[in-house]
């Protein structure tokens, strides 16, 4: 019984670590060249206002904030489904998890190499967007745009999202995979909410980030390389064990 409890605690710590990585991956996805520069115009369009109105008009900011919430719910819906589906697929291979770790680790490292520019994967050099026609200015339209955005595998979003899906496929249950993709959705979606709520204050930091896109992409690539290498060598589990030892409170979660 004691060993079982220890195993459960280790699994919980592992999931928390994976969630932190997924949330960071979501944030890096937001900071990518295909998301950050268009975030403000995208939000203004969803709220049915102009970017200037979003900056100066309190009422316009409220409309944009409501639209942003609906948008994040839309993209979260897709990511939760993807996480659940990938975990269901991964369970068929759970008995060969060692080989799966090697496969997923190498795949994620390949994505990392794409990000740092060492290689270029043609699949991630294309955009696949869903046309939802004119849906600006309504809550339903913002939700539909969130669904479309989540399916829009742009060159920047695709590799990171694919890597997190690979980690989700390696989870032991569909629920854990869904939670992992929810963490990714929050990492990607919460910055949209912050831009909607504090656009005037964030214009300066956003401009600085746009000037340093190359560095952000390299950081993204290094994150993918690190996650892939940890999966490949089994260090993900070791780091989870260290987390459990460093923060015993994690043993009471779950």
From TrEMBL:
**Annotated membrane topology:** Multi-pass membrane protein
- The answer on whether this UniProt entry bears the keyword Membrane reads yes
Which UniProt keyword terms apply here?
Cytochrome c-type biogenesis, Membrane, Transmembrane, Transmembrane helix
- Stored InterPro entries: Cyt_c_assmbl_TM_dom, Cytochrome_c-biogenesis_DsbD
Q: Where in the cell is it found?
A: Membrane
Q: Name one Pfam family in it.
A: DsbD_TM
Task: Report TM segments.
Answer: 15-43, 64-82, 102-121, 142-167, 179-199, 219-237
User: Which segments constitute the Cytochrome C biogenesis protein transmembrane domain?
Assistant: 17-232
UniProt family annotation: Belongs to the DsbD family.
Q: What is this protein called?
A: Cytochrome c biogenesis protein CcdA
| Classification lineage | Bacteria, Pseudomonadati, Pseudomonadota, Alphaproteobacteria, Rhodobacterales
